[in-house]
Amino acid sequence: MDIDLGLEGNVALVTGSATGLGHACAEAFSRQGANVALAAPNLDDLAYASDRLHALGEGEILGLEVDVRNRDHLAALVEETVDQYGGIDHLVTGPRPLEPERFLDVSDEDWFRGFDRLFMSVVWAIRESYAHLEESDQGSVVTVANPAIPALTDELSVATAYGRAVQGLTESQAKKFAPEVRVNAVVPGPHETADLEKFLGRRVDAGEFTDVPSAWEAVLADCPYESPGDPLDLGKVVTFLSSQHASFVNGATIPVDGGSGL
Fold first, then answer.
1. Using an 8 Å Cβ cutoff, are 170 and 143 in contact?
2. Is residue 241 part of a domain?
3. Is residue 203 part of a domain?
4. 72 Cβ partners below 8 Å, 6+ apart?
5. Would you say 156 and 196 are in contact if contact means Cβ atoms under 8 Å apart?
6. Sheet holding 35-40, edge to edge
7. Does 100 sit behind a cis peptide bond, omega within 30 degrees of 0 on the bond before it?
């Protein structure tokens, strides 16, 4: 049984929430009885995610097709969420990283795509939501930085670079927005997501590993755990940081990495 964090009836807007870690955050809010606005670019993924949360959670679910690289889309997302639920209490930003690629192979175009998707989307989401978060008596922002996995540092160079930038944004805005709105970050380590499984499968196909278990072994080499994290456990950390149980936690960057020492 989940601990009651006092989030029932709250409104949580979660970007990148149809799949992966973003969806796990949305699920954790839904299980707490919060009303959740899902945002993702793929309608099929949104439909599946919405149906799944309707079955698992207790709060209402709103799914919206959004390209986080488009500032107008994010403005419309906030407006529709407020129209549906009357306000926003919690914002969680968790855009999916670009396809992994080694640093020397990343094109200038992908660096600029990554800037909009992984950094500016967070800036725009916070900017558009801030007035509503400030009006809430428990406004919070949690930025889910891109996964930091030592064994994949070169392949995740774009995600790692902008993840650090998001952490810096988190720290600076936490000082500006508190106490009305708290801002914290979580940094995931290796979690069992479809995206990471798919990437490891491609590395097996390329002959870098004999099979997926050996690929996971390499990914977990710096982690004292023998298996990857459960994405929902990360979601529970996010809901805790959003709740009044963490009312004096502000400007923190919390690693959720199994002790990898990232």
1. yes
2. yes
3. no
4. none
5. no
6. 61-65, 35-40, 11-15, 90-93, 139-144, 181-188, 253-256
7. no
Mean pLDDT over residues 152-172, rounded?
Answer: 87
CATH number at residue 119: 3.40.50.720
Within a domain: residue 210? no
Residues in the chain: 262
Q: At what angle do helices 231-242 and 20-31 cross, to 10 degrees?
A: 60
Degrees (nearest 5) of the Cα angle 49, 184, 245? Answer: 85
The strand ranges marked E within the chain are 11-15, 35-40, 61-65, 90-93, 139-144, 181-188, 253-256
Q: How far apart are CA 72 and CA 82, in angstroms?
A: 15
Unique residue bearing structure tokens 């969420």: 81
Q: In whole angstroms, give the CA distance from residue 84 to residue 92.
A: 18
One-letter amino acid identity for 51? D
In the chain, the number of structural domains is 1
Share of the chain above pLDDT 70, in %: 97
Within 8 A by CB and 6+ apart from 15, the residues are 22, 39, 40, 66, 68, 74, 77, 92, 93, 94, 95, 121, 125
Could you give the CA distance from residue 106 to residue 43 in angstroms, rounded to a whole number? 28
DSSP letters, 21-82, are: HHHHHHHHHHHTT-EEEEEES-HHHHHHHHHHHHHH-SS-EEEEE--TT-HHHHHHHHHHHH
Residue range 55-98, pLDDT digits in tens: 987 889 999 999 999 999 999 999 999 999 999 999 999 877 65
* pLDDT on residue 22: 92
